[in-house]
Batch of 2 targets.
Target 1
Amino acid sequence: MSTVFGKVVKLILLERFGPVVEQVGSYLFQYGTNPLLYIMKYTELPLSKIKESLCILIKYNLVTFVTNKNENLANYTLKPDRILLMLRYPKYNNLIKKKFGDESEMIIEEVLQRGYWTASELILKVIERLKKNEQATSVSLVKDKFKSLVVAKYLVRMPYPKDDKPVPDLQIQDNELYIFPDIDNKILAQINAGAESMDKIPDKGIYWTINFDRFHQDMRDKIIVTAFTKKIDDNAGKFVELLLRQMYIRTMPWADSSNPVPILEIKDIIRKQETHKQLLAFFDQYVNVIEQDNSNLIRKAGEASGGSFQIFMKEAFIQFAWETIEQIVLEKYDSKAARIFRLVKSKKHIEPDQIQKLAMIPAKEAKRLSYLLLEENFLQIQELKKSNTNNGPNKTFTLFHINLEQVVRMTLEHCYKTLFNIMTRKNHEKEINKRIIVKKQRVDTIAMDMREKGAEEGQISDIEEMITPPEREILERIDITLKKLNTVELEVDETIFLLQIYLMYQ
């Protein structure tokens, strides 16, 4: 793990959990797996604070533990990649809201905020929130929403200790991961009405958490569908979406390539849906265009019954990675540099003189841009020696080439640095305007309390006028700046996710 990545992890922990948890997390990031006493020795924090910090990190699945050689002690390991996922929480909520509705979004939001929870407690909490928002709901409705999330594998059961040891060994069988506990609606309704205590919940000790892998599967599919929608049109995107959906019936979600999917299945689904008539009318043409696309997503696997197609996820993400890097070169330098990069990519190995001829760029500029890309590690060089037949001096050939995996890893480091800069800038904006922000929060709290007590609008207006017009202008500017930074943060994370998927398939 790089130093820049460590700085990003440190800022996320500081922002969400405070300086003590951040100090414990930073130590584990820097020194790796360690027991409690080592953490206490090097961080110089009180033992109680370290234990509390580790409990918080374990609760949110940011730290794991295993038994030490001494079975009474545990070794703790930080999961930095899991910490980075905290930046994607808004995306997870938005994804669930679009697919399942507001109740499901609240369920996911509560689990993300608390790390894990029992189904009964979660259902009751969501009902309480819906009532505050004056939304009609019932125990059975929220319970069905929870079940839907479990069936779709967005929620998964937490492992639990199977024996009584000083350091518990948390385990769970695969067939237990998605078994929903038997919960009586009447008992939950009685607890919700205050007729029964929380001790009566039927699923005590059965905890649920987020299955991030399932969310990432959807995000990966969205990248593919969006790519074909932008390249071709909405009908092509719909075709790819249905193809991916049918793939999961026959193939593991993260396989490099799928088992053959009969193309007539896709056609039958489109015919039944009756929503994409143009796709149905020009079905064969869409299949041919997508098959010939340079992303290499699908290839024909057979001729019987109209043919079957295989989906090649690994090939597609190799092309997506190439396109992403090419776009970065274009934006960071210029179109001539991007042309040189594409030329080296197409030729695989090429001499400097050939670049000048084939790229149709003046020799001096082509040389400057080639060595600029080399200096920035977008290109690499390889030297080949050819000996002379008359025992003369050896002749050396210099060839430019691209190591995509190396370039992707370098680009990821740049993305982490950008994230760090964005988060630092956000903290700076909040710090220099802390007085006005705190004042605004205090005024909003007083106004809210007065509304709840039934105060008149004139009284509330008097309170709100404590914020002067110049202060309102400053607050509006801060709000616009923070929104822009948050948007850029999410966009950078999209690039990180795409590049991580590419590396996962390697």
Target 2
Amino acid sequence: MVRLITHNILACHAKGCTSNNFPLQFQDVSIELREAEFNADFLRGFLPRLEWPALVGAARQLGDTSLPEEQPEMIDDEFLQKLHHVLLEIHVEEGAMVCPNCKHVYPISNGIPNMLLAEHEIG
């Protein structure tokens, strides 16, 4: 499933594409919202691993503006609920992710991203 918790670690790995290859940009997507069990401890533990600007940008591409530009210093329950929704409840079902550098397109079908490369694209 393409959720923003996964998207936040995906970078383009096409041959020769080694800079400006993260984050992948969403294109022509359809999303579905699915409830997920809230776990504040998991979110607090995961927060330091996130690339915050990439997460906020991806959420905005998908129409969610609930997260602040800057990661807040004060982590309260309201913030954790918003983070939970963005990371775990927004599912990209169809569309594509596009590398901002080489423009390689990674299609998403039935919620599954195709990150495979053709033989000539492998570096």
